[in-house]
Every structure is written in structure tokens, then in C-alpha cells.
Amino acid sequence: MRGRSSRSSGSFPFGTLMVASVSIGALAALGWQVWQILLPMLEPPSTPQFQQAVRLDPLPSPVSLPTNAPVTDGPAAGRIDPGEFPPGSRGRVIEPIGLAIRSQPAADGAYQGGIVLGETVTVLEYSADGRWQRVRRELNGQEGWVRAGNLGPVAGSGVVATVNSPDVSPEDPTAASTPLPTRAPAPAAVSVGSQGRVIEPIGLALRATPEAEGAYIGGVPMNEVVTVLGLSEDGRWQRIRRQDGQEGWVRAGNLAQE
């Protein structure tokens, strides 16, 4: 009895072995699933495939311009011969949209107003490049620079014109071109001491002295009634008094008898 071993103590633990086997199998299956998930992440990215490069022919070299070719800053439109309208001559605006008056002979000069089609101006001088003219308006004496090449002749400004007479045939050598006389200053339509109404559509510039260079002291709008106080010696300017009592000089010929 003393040397015999117990039946239960000598038997193999089959239950424990089964539990261990199932646990190991479950862990192995779980590890396999995790490995399948992580494997794509661990693989290096595939090398990108590019299309085979195509060799392009080099572009043709630009053609060099002759070194002696004249270089200009733009078309010569607007450049005229100063001999056609020398300083002191009169011209009529022929540009359909009118002209812009600028403080300097340049496109970026300060804009000072506009001159409408058909208005008459006096040419004072030319810019160094001949593309700009400094002019004086006959309506209000304003001065400034406009683009050259936009003035036409004015009848009575000394421009040569052909005079046809019914008593002289075209073949007659005496029927030569005769220069028209220079237009005289417009007489004052309103006498001194009378009242007149401004008939100039753009109004009149009121100046301190009877000259275009006189200091500008205000403007008189169209249809305003003023009193004529005097007349300059050359008859080109009238001294007036406005309804508010302001006095000054305006160009003659722009008032109608009231």
C-alpha cells in the first residue's frame, strides 16, 4: 500500500492541455489577422512609372533687327509741320471728340478742361518734339497744351483761299488766290452803362485785367445779366459788374443787349 502511486496524481492533465491549445490557436489566428493588416503598410511604395520623355526640337533663334533701324516711341500721328500753324496763327479744332487741355506737353499732364469741335484757338508755341501745341482759347482766354495735328484752317486767319468772281473766268490769270483779311475783333454788342446777358454756352472767365494773362477771379455762367462799366482800348474786353457786385473784365462780343 505504501509504495503504490495514486491513479489521479499520475494521470496526464488533458483538460489543461486542451485549454492551452485553444488559447494558442486563437492567439495565432489573431496575430495572423493583425499581420495581414500591417503587411501592406510595411511594404515600400512602388516606383512611379513615367512616360518616356520626348525630345523637343529647339526653338528657332529670334531674328535680329538691323542696328541702324530708327527707334521711335510710337506712331507719328499728331506731329505736324509748325509752318502750317506758326505761333500766333489761329486754328479750328477738327477732332470730332474735341481736345483735352493739359498743363504740360505730355499725356500725363494735369487735365484742365476740354475744347469742343469747331472751336477756334490761337497757337502760342510748340513742344520740343512737335507733338504738342500750347494754345489760347478765344472763348475765355484759357491757355494750355493740346495734341498737335488736330487743327484746321480758319476763314479770315490769313489762310490762302481761292476767290471766284462771276466776272472773271477760271482761265483768267487775274483770278489768282487772294489771302483773306484777318478777322477784326468782335465789336461790343452792349454799350457802356447798359445791361447785357451772357450768350456764351460755356460762360465767361472773369479776369482782374483786360488780358488773357490777367488773374482769374471767377466765372460768369450763361444767361446771367451783367452791367457793362467800360471797354478796353483795343475793344476786345469789357469791364462788367455782376449781380452780386463783383467786377472784372470779360472778352467782348459775348453779351446780348438785355
Automatic annotation (TrEMBL):
Cleavable signal peptide: none
Family matches, as Pfam families: SH3_3 (PF08239)
Region listing for Disordered, in residue ranges: 69-88, 164-188
Transmembrane segments: 12-35
Residues covered by the SH3b domain: 89-155, 194-256
Low complexity compositional bias, start-end: 173-188
Key words of the record: Membrane, Transmembrane, Transmembrane helix
Protein origin, superkingdom: Bacteria
PANTHER family: FAMILY PROTEIN, PUTATIVE-RELATED (PTHR34408), GLYCOSYL HYDROLASE FAMILY 19 DOMAIN-CONTAINING PROTEIN HI_1415 (PTHR34408:SF1)
Name by which UniProt lists this protein: SH3 domain-containing protein
